[in-house]
From TrEMBL:
It comes from Ornithinimicrobium ciconiae. This is ArsA family ATPase. Pfam families: ArsA_ATPase. SUPFAM superfamilies: P-loop containing nucleoside triphosphate hydrolases. GO terms for molecular function: ATP binding; ATP hydrolysis activity. Residues 12-246 form the AAA+ ATPase domain. InterPro entries: AAA+_ATPase (IPR003593), ArsA/GET3_ATPase-like (IPR025723), ATPase_ArsA/GET3 (IPR016300), P-loop_NTPase (IPR027417). It comes from the Bacteria.
């Protein structure tokens, strides 16, 4: 996989990094963003991962919903790098304020159902990620702020939940239960409620006794107000979904060369193929490489002999080598298995680093490994 050519290609406008948790996905996204910026691209990197590793690696004290310039990037080629972290509720609030009149927007923001939905409803984070990606793309097209957007997704299989987010949130607001308890407001007050019929009235009254009148009122008010803006949500989500399928978008799956992580990577590869999402390839991260000629078995035998003779220091070194050699052998086996299972899947390998990736020089070393193969 030629990530160097991919990142410098003007036709590439969006790169989405996805993968299981703990495989170095955030570091990979940051390294790709740094490399692209130092090759002349105007880059913004968006992390959806609630952990703050991206800020630390880029030398920033914090990240929030507003893109911040990264200091220390080599801009000699004309590029730039901004970084941000998704603030789910703030993004939701901004959408409401933008697409509803002031009175309706305030009704929504003050509503208890909205406050719960915007803070903790399953799928809201992924839905707002699509909103934010769409906003960044629109801003880039409007003023040329960026020509490349790199997205770092949440860990594990939720990394692809944003593909289902519009349908999930739409199903919630269009679901039978929500339609039932919000029917009077949608039908236009008392006259509309009478028009719904006796059966609906009895059902609504029963739910009201179970859940309380205030809850019913909050839901009814919320859905009635959201009707004015939710259609726009769906339209923009559909546009972003189409963007993800566009040839200018490339997905990069990140995995460690271990059985569970590669199993998750296989799920991502299959799901992306099912949804016709353009897959650049697989990054095999933190690959253990052993160049010493002594095998792990010989190293352990030698360690035992040295321990018997009292040379515990050298024995400890040999045991560390034996463990590393076994890990390297295991990684080679798993990588061969991946190649056999997905013979057409492009890959790139990043060696296991000797220290944490916590600054720009360390990120550059990762970028070098990612783009030099």
């Amino acid at each position: 996989m030629d990530l160097g050519a991919l990142l410098t290609d003007p036709a590439t406008s969006v790169v989405v990094c996805c993968g299981a948790g703990g495989v170095g996905k955030t570091t990979t996204a940051a390294a790709l963003a740094l490399h692209a910026a130092e090759q002349g691209r105007r880059v913004v990197v968006l992390t959806i991962d609630p952990a703050r590793r991206l800020a630390q690696a880029l030398g920033l004290t914090e990240l929030d919903n507003t893109p911040r310039p990264v200091v220390g990037v080599d801009t000699a080629a004309g590029g730039s790098l901004d970084a941000m972290m998704l603030d789910m509720k703030r993004t939701f609030d901004e959408v409401v304020l933008t697409h509803a009149d002031p009175e309706t927007a305030q009704q929504i923001l003050d509503n208890s159902i909205y406050q719960a939905l915007s803070s903790s409803f399953a799928g809201t984070q992924e839905y707002m990620a699509m909103e934010r990606l769409g906003q960044l793309r629109a801003q880039a097209e409007a003023d040329g702020s960026w020509d490349l957007i790199i997205v770092d997704t949440p860990p594990s299989r939720s990394a692809l939940d944003f593909l289902d987010a519009p349908t999930r949130l739409g199903s919630f607001l269009d679901g039978r239960f929500i339609r039932l308890i919000s029917a009077p407001a949608r039908a236009g007050g008392r006259v509309g409620a009478r028009a719904l019929g006796v059966g609906m009235s009895v059902a609504t009254a029963t739910i009201g006794r179970l859940l309380g009148k205030q809850f019913m009122l909050d839901v009814s008010t919320f859905v009635a107000a959201m009707d004015t803006v939710f259609g726009g949500f769906r339209a923009r989500a559909d546009e972003t979904y189409a963007l993800l399928q566009d040839k200018g978008t490339q997905f990069v799956v990140v995995a460690a060369p271990e059985r569970d992580a590669l199993r998750e990577a296989g799920y991502f590869v299959q799901r992306l193929a099912k949804d016709d999402m353009p897959l650049a390839g697989l990054v095999l991260n933190r690959v253990a490489v052993s160049r010493a000629r002594i095998s792990s078995d010989r190293a352990r035998d030698g360690a035992e002999m040295l321990e018997e003779s009292g040379d515990r220091h050298t024995a400890a070194v040999l045991r560390v080598h034996a463990d590393h050699a076994e890990t390297a052998a295991r990684h080679r086996r798993h990588i061969r298995d991946v190649a056999a299972a997905y013979p057409r899947l492009a890959t790139v390998q990043v060696p296991l680093a000797g220290a944490d990736i916590a600054d720009l020089p360390a990120l550059r070393s990762v970028a070098e490994a990612l783009t030099s193969q």
